[in-house]
């Protein structure tokens, strides 16, 4: 296996390995997991594997989960089909960590390109441990014990008819997560606020709020500041897709953004999301 770093902070391209073979080898999968913890997102080219191999590879790392809004391959449950051929049905062009609206968001994902547009459609990943490390110390102190409320309703649900949106919210109630989470395997502290966060759950303390305007817009200005950190290029890597390219990311310490600059060309991706633990 050859491993080449793609930036100073995040991402490595791994060559000389077949994920089909890795789908049948625990030793190989363990080696890849070690690289993932080190680089946070791994890229593999020319992985002409079957959907069953894609699923089997991802299953080395945990159970897979379907998505409440985006459908899965009927023959391969857990393999979510992010198939875009219309500008109106995109949800991925916002910095986010997958499933932050779940109590236990996925620990990682394996995304394989089925069809790429001739130009555009790149994905950007961000190292959110680096984003946390670089925050000013006074901000770190302020957010140390803060919690955010996260919901699927105001993102995936927003364009739905009201009844359908309410049903989505009922089936996926709002959850609360720490703004600074700790990586369960590396111990790194991670800035864990993204577009799925609606507001802080516990901002309104005497230290933070003397008058109404300290809370509104004070709290939302802080939340906007935190979520905007993912847009800093020094924390990012950008990947150009080709058919059979694969990206695997550690969803606990990264965010990503699929750039929507390719329409009307289609873009088709199969994604296996691996179940994770409750953030702490
Ligand atoms: C995602 O947001 O999980 C998918 C990213 C992509 O399609 O590039």
Automatic annotation (TrEMBL):
InterPro entries: AtsK-like, TauD-like_sf, TauD/TfdA-like. Gene3D superfamilies: Clavaminate synthase-like. Keywords: Dioxygenase, Iron, Metal-binding, Oxidoreductase. The keyword Iron applies. GO terms for molecular function: dioxygenase activity. Residues 3-272 form the TauD/TfdA-like domain. The keyword Nucleus does not apply. Belongs to the TfdA dioxygenase family. This is TauD/TfdA family dioxygenase. It comes from Acidovorax bellezanensis.
